[in-house]
Design a protein that fits this description.
By secondary structure, the protein is an alpha+beta fold. It is built from 12 helices and 4 strands, in the order αααααααβββαααβαα. β2 and β3 (163-175) form a beta hairpin.
Length: 339
């Protein structure tokens, strides 16, 4: 009987050992899995930004790096901002840059700039650098006008007296966070300032007025409200340099004079060609009239011969007519110049 009991107890012992081994293996696997997140969990717990182990595991399953989420949450928490992990995960999965958003919110909070989570993430997802925008809002930025990328070193304009002026300007701006989404960029600011400089110089009656008071350019341009509709607020416009260029008025007058000369020459040539053509027409008409005279003169001998045959004219009459013609020819030859 005892032997039977022992034989029956052995399979139960084996099953128990196998069960313990399976439990140990499962526990070891769970321990290995949990150990990856234990450091992050402990770091978040000690920092006051608590994150459960289950949330860390679920982040891995959702293909979200737990370290990025936890570290940025800790950073925000230490700066006095409360940002839940679900918001951080959602922004990361939407393609946002969590680290720059958190740093921008911290900088804005310290500078007492109103920048909430929704606005910050919206600006980031729109493709704008939210951290750079906050820095520019705190520390104003200087923009050269014209920009280096344009390939021009000065903005050229002509005053009313025809003298060209070459100006350089520097625009100090800071970011307007409220207009950052949908607001125009630096290129618009540069274009508007350049247009204002050209307009101000062009409206000056003399280039000397601009040289005497360069600040009139900045005051006039600044008064136009060029930052409307842009992502920036213009603080000041400073004229760095103004140089005198060419006398554009004189060059235009010279070019106009040359054009008028060519036009008058063309008109004179046209009139000369017309006169030559008319002269040729008159010569052809004279030749035609001379031919008609010759034809008429050729009829005279025929008429005289006919009159002689018919007896209407005598021989003496013909001699008297010939003498009269000879006398007329002599008088014409004597009346010619140099005869």
């Amino acid at each position: 009987m005892n032997t039977t009991l022992l034989l029956g107890a052995e399979p139960l012992a084996v099953l128990g050992i196998v069960g313990l081994c399976v439990v140990a293996i499962i526990g070891l696997i769970l321990l290995i899995m949990i150990s990856q997140y234990l450091q992050l969990w402990l770091q978040a717990f000690l920092s006051g930004a608590r994150v459960s182990l289950l949330d860390l595991i679920m982040m891995r399953l959702r293909k979200v790096p737990p370290a990025v989420i936890v570290l940025n949450r800790i950073t925000a928490k230490k700066a006095g901002l409360e940002v839940p992990t679900n918001l951080l995960e959602a922004h990361f999965m939407a393609g946002g840059r969590i680290d720059r958003v958190i740093r921008a919110m911290i900088a804005a909070d310290k500078a007492q700039i109103d920048l909430g989570w929704d606005r910050a993430t919206g600006i980031d997802l729109a493709g704008r650098d939210i951290l750079d925008a906050v820095k520019t809002s705190v520390d104003p930025k200087v923009i050269d006008c014209p920009s280096v990328q344009s390939g021009k070193s000065t903005i050229d304009a002509v005053a009313k007296d025809g003298i060209q002026l070459k100006a350089k300007a520097r625009v100090t701006v800071r970011t307007a966070i409220s207009r950052l989404v949908g607001g125009a960029t630096e290129e618009t600011i540069i274009a508007r300032v350049g247009e204002g400089i050209i307009s101000t110089i062009g409206s000056a009656s003399s280039h000397k007025e601009v040289l005497e008071n360069p600040d009139r350019i900045s005051k006039t341009v600044l008064a136009k409200g060029l930052d409307s509709g842009t992502a920036f607020e213009i603080l000041s416009i400073d004229i760095a340099d103004v140089d005198v260029g060419d006398n554009i008025g004189a060059q235009l007058q010279q070019a106009q004079a040359e054009a008028d000369t060519k036009r008058f020459q063309a008109q004179a040539e046209q009139r000369r060609a017309l006169a030559v053509a008319q002269e040729a027409e008159y010569q052809a008409e004279a030749q035609k009239n001379r031919a008609l005279v010759v034809l008429a003169e050729a009829e005279v001998p025929k008429a005289i011969a006919g009159a002689l045959r018919e007896g209407r004219m005598g021989v003496m009459d013909m001699y008297r007519m010939q003498n009269m013609q000879a006398d007329t020819d002599m008088r014409k030859s004597l009346g010619k110049p140099g005869a």
